[in-house]
Amino acid sequence: MEFVAFMRGTSGRALRIAVGLVLAAVGILGAGGLWGILLAVLGGVMIAAGAFNFCLLAPLFHADLWGRPKPTGH
Fold first, then answer.
1. Residue 41 lies in a domain
2. Which pLDDT score, from 0 to 100, does residue 73 have?
């Protein structure tokens, strides 16, 4: 849960945006072809995740997309 807590914070958001910008730049300027398109799209998703403060990996840590723990139901 520490990972999710980090990703919810300002540093995690900044990291997602920075990595997204790098991936998009590499995809657009460097890779080209299908790999370039895939990298650019992945970079765009990461930028959006940082901008709108959601984490696509949070469900793997039993949290919702916004990093809140999932309620335990019976």
1. no
2. 61
**DSSP-derived secondary structure letter, 11:** H
Q: How far is CA 69 from the centre of its chain?
A: 18
Is residue 74 included in any domain, yes or no? Answer: no
**Per the domain annotation, does 60 fall within a domain?**
yes
Q: What's the total number of domains in the chain? A: 1
Quote the mean pLDDT of the chain: 85
Helix pair angle (10-25, 33-51), 10° resolution: 160
| Residue 32 DSSP label | -
Count of residues making up the chain: 74
2-30 per-position pLDDT tens digit = 877 888 888 988 999 999 999 999 999 98
Read off the tokens for 10: 């300002």
Residue 22 maps to a domain: yes
The residue type found at 68 is R
